[in-house]
């Protein structure tokens, strides 16, 4: 009897040990997902931004670029996976996010920053320039997306141009609701007439059950060679106190 | 009457007993094994299973990924 009991006790002890091991594995996974992917991706994104600036040349942070008249220039369609711009969001603590072509998780969103839906318009183009980004994990570029309000500024920077957009609306939709990135999200069947920008991120936090959507519309554009647009004064592009 | 010390973690005690060398060598070995294990999990295992978990989609898609 005592032998059977001790065997039973042994089995329970082993089971407990296996469960403790599984719990440790789950805890490790959370550490990896919630912390380590941020460390790795943010390091990668900082490096990408540094390389972009080197390739594009220094920005004249002492001059305020005047808004340009006429239609904004549109870049050539970038190749898949290439980082071709940055997204400035002065309302975010991390104000500048690399913009790459494509929305594949492994090749773009997990490693490069925000990604442009390839079938949508390019910045400055009539239609709906649409961008996806992580709200949690992998550098979480859109962590603070819910803090954007009507009138918040979004600036897209390319090698030659700053495109300034202003937030018009935000909404929460189903992941299958592709209408939000249609050329005209208010009327997906209509011919597009406005220059729009749409951000998509997961919602609620730490889940991908729904999507958080922010819509914006182009208000002006400036030439990068002229300096920074006035909307970026006070950001890390040009501190309001003129440096220091 | 022999009172055997209760083993709290039988599996790990077994492993520890079967490692070679004096105590300090075995401690170093255990730490090294743990580092290798965590490294392999972070580098290969977790990235492989993460896409199958419903934590972080960011895109809208007509055929949502699982």
TrEMBL record, chain A:
The keyword Membrane applies. Keywords: Hydrolase, Membrane, Transmembrane, Transmembrane helix. It comes from the Bacteria. InterPro entries: Sortase, Sortase_Class_E, Sortase_dom-sf, Sortase_E. The keyword Acyltransferase does not apply. The chain crosses the membrane at residues 12-36. NCBIfam families: class_E_sortase (NF033747), sortase_fam (TIGR01076). This is Class E sortase.
